Amino acid sequence: MNTFPKDFIWGSATAAAQIEGAAHEGGKEDSIWDAYARLPQAVAGGDSPERGVDHYHRMPEDVALMKRLGLDSYRFSTSWARVVPGGRSVNQEGLDFYSRLVDELLGAGVLPWLTLYHWDLPQALQERGGWTNRDTAYRFADYAEAVYGALGDRVSHWTTFNEPLCSSLIGYVGGEHAPGLTDPAAGLAAVHHQHLAHGLAVQRLRGLADAAGRDIQAGITLNLTNAVPNDPTDPVDLEAARRIDALWNRMFLEPMLLGAYPADLLEDVRDYGLAARIQDGDLEVIAQPIDFLGVNHYHDDNVSGHPLPADAVPGLRPTPKPGRSPFPGSEFVTMPTRGLPRTAMDWEVHPQGLHTLLVRLGAEYPNLPPLYVTENGAAYDGDVVTAEGAVHDPERTAYILAHIEAVGRAIEDGADVRGYFVWSLLDNFEWAWGYEKRFGIVHVDYDTMVRTPKDSALAFAKHIEDTKLAASAAAIVG
Ligand code: PNW
């Protein structure tokens, strides 16, 4: 077993639109995911976030479960459409729900780790252009202020965005996530405006915290994915990997950490107007110092510049639909399979990729803040609750433990990683896959909403306990 720092944070994550349900209760109005799910064929099985896993009504039970599993922290998101329904005025009832959640967590000894945007823009703001409208960034900072006003006395960890890549490129270019557009220029506008929104919100949160004499930790979560050239000796594949690395990783890391978009990226996407979106002063706002960087990691991308053979399985599958390429200017890039085991999402299982990524970040960005793995986990088919009330999920268990081991080795190799959150606490609404793909370490029966910890949850709980015992033993001996 690896040793982990004594104050390493072990947690689990969810997102509002995936678990809460109560889509039209407590003053909440449509988010883009509520609206998108009503479009024919948008979501597998015609599923919607309307009911979620009823967390809105079962919150205390879910927090009790976290306590039982021994989690140090719970990463959740607040729904903008619940807090500012219709993008108009603040809904106290919405804030009250999150206030009760935070109290419940603190009462259970679980650190609240709050994300402001996990993809559920108020539909009313979408009708004003959504993230293609620069004004949305300023509205986001106001929303951040409203949430801080209600929870800032008790919440210390603030994440602006979860995976802006998905809510820009997959939503506006690939067309497979809400709002379902297929417009590369719109997607890149969304990227820039989300960056700006991040910077404005960090400034706003810090200003409010300073005025109140409080310390906060503010950061962002990115989904970072190694772009591996399919044939590392082939210049065509190497060029494809450079392009995907620029779009997937560096387009997000560099404005925030270095204060500039990568020059090669600007050249790759020159036809789509990204440069024209950047106004004087934007990059200073975007490059606000952050206290941590959240890293979501599930798989590597094996990248080629050659067309796939006719019988090939495409590597990256965000949704059940054969979607458009989400890569502006690099639409020709393919993702061939390379014989690794795959999850039910068709994503490669390759824990070493997480080690490579975490070590690389420290090597490439001298001013990198501390890292937290804010999501990692796997969907597998075939979870069943046995007569004894167990769910045997050996593949998910192995996936999680192998990735934790990779994190431990990355720390030994110098990466400054301070926490690990499993995705996800509960089976939930897996975006365009609806309820078909189960990522939970806790099983949810979608008819009765009964929760049953899977073997992976018990293994994770045991891992947390063993690690803490080992750390305190080392402290006594040391
Ligand atoms: C993340 N991809 O989404 C999200 O943060 C979660 O809400 C989600 O449930 C989880 O991962 C599992 O999918 C992703 O296409 C969606 O590479 C798509 C991709 C990656 C992450």
From TrEMBL:
Tell me the keywords, alphabetical order.
Answer: Glycosidase, Hydrolase
EC assignment: 3.2.1.21
Which residues are the active-site ones?
375 (nucleophile)
**Pfam families for the chain:** Glyco_hydro_1
Lineage top rank: taxon: Bacteria
Class of enzymatic activity (EC top level): hydrolase
Gene3D superfamilies noted in UniProt: Glycosidases
| Family recorded in the similarity comment | Belongs to the glycosyl hydrolase 1 family.
Q: What is this protein called?
A: beta-glucosidase
Native source organism of the sequence: Agromyces salentinus
| Lineage of producing organism | Bacteria, Bacillati, Actinomycetota, Actinomycetes, Micrococcales
